[in-house]
Structure formats: C-alpha cells, structure tokens
Amino acid sequence: xxxxxxxxxxxxxxxxxxxxxxxxxxxxxxxxxxxxxxxxxxxxxxxxxxxxxxxxxxxxxxxxxxxxxxxxxxxxxxxxxxxxxxxxxxxxxxxxxxxxxxxxxxxxxxxxxxxxxxxxxxxxxxxxxxxxxxxxxxxxxxxx
Length: 144
Prior knowledge:
- The chain has six helices and two strands.
- By secondary structure, the protein is of the alpha+beta class.
- A hairpin with an 8-residue loop joins strand 1 (119-127) and strand 2 (136-143).
- Helix 1 (4-21) packs antiparallel against helix 2 (51-67).
C-alpha cells in the first residue's frame, strides 16, 4: 500500500510538470538537451519536429531527472527555458543559478525500497499566460 509520501510526491509531480512543460521547448533560444532517442518525425517534412514531440521529450527528460535519487538538477534545469527556471528574477534564469536554487533536491536521502516511478506525458495543449508564467504549451505527466 502506498504511503502518504508517495501520494504527495505523485500529486506534486503532476502539478510541477504541467507548469514546467508549459514553458519547456517553447520560445527558447537555447538548444534542447541531447536525447539519445530518435524523436518521431512529422509526415511530409523529414527534418521538422513538431512542438508536441519536442514538448513531450523535454517533459520526459525533466521528469526522469527529477525522479532520480537524488535528483539530477542540472538536467532538470537544462530541460526548462530560462523563463521557467526558479531563479529567473534573480539572474535571468541561468542553468547555474537554477542548480543552486534546487540544491536541496540533490541532498535528499535515497529511499532504498522505493519502486521506480513510471510516468507518461501526454495531453499537450496551449496554456494561457498567468501571473506565474507566460503563455506556451502544457503537458500532463501522470505518475504511477
């Protein structure tokens, strides 16, 4: 039976990815992190990769990095746009500042008996701007 920590972590996971993916891979001048997988190519243009494919890949990379024990915060930060990083107002969203901001995730104690979290990323959609983030794309990550 899952404990409250697992349920809370799964809830945070879904919420965080929705907000993170809303900014990931959209409007960034930074190159996307290199993923060893080959992304599917849209029909008719073999060199183009759709926004949905890019967003899904970035959200999956972010989640994989976050779910490690301890988290790989550098990879998490690299999968976010500058505007999405938690240090944007402090230093403009540098990767180094983001890593420093998320340092506590690298200090968490691994849970030796914990089963790996499986997740899916889907439902990519447009997200309107709010006080906390600019308009972009969002995705739903479901953890199990």
